[in-house]
């Protein structure tokens, strides 16, 4: 069975992540776990997923600078989930 690229990437991100610090200490990529089904199984993102994506929006510039996360955010799947949740990536 072929392992989907995004499931491997998301798993890797969650395993190596200890969270990135921000001014308020709220950057923690593991809070995006509710988005897993949207990435793994191409299901529509849940309200919880969208809420967590919105909560983590101040962290996107930090995530985009980190090679562990940038590919995830910049991927076609990542962008489609952000679009479905009406969450835009800020200009960094």
Automatic annotation (TrEMBL):
Signal peptide: 1-25
SMART domains: AAI
InterPro entries the UniProt entry points to: Bifun_inhib/LTP/seed_sf (IPR036312), Bifunc_inhib/LTP/seed_store (IPR016140), nsLTP2 (IPR033872)
GO terms, biological process: lipid transport
Assigned keywords, A-Z: Lipid-binding, Signal, Transport
Gene3D superfamilies: Plant lipid-transfer and hydrophobic proteins (1.10.110.10)
Keyword Transport assigned: yes
PANTHER family recorded: BIFUNCTIONAL INHIBITOR/LIPID-TRANSFER PROTEIN/SEED STORAGE 2S ALBUMIN SUPERFAMILY PROTEIN, BIFUNCTIONAL INHIBITOR_LIPID-TRANSFER PROTEIN_SEED STORAGE 2S ALBUMIN SUPERFAMILY PROTEIN
Stated name of the protein: Bifunctional inhibitor/plant lipid transfer protein/seed storage helical domain-containing protein
Organism, as annotated: Amborella trichopoda
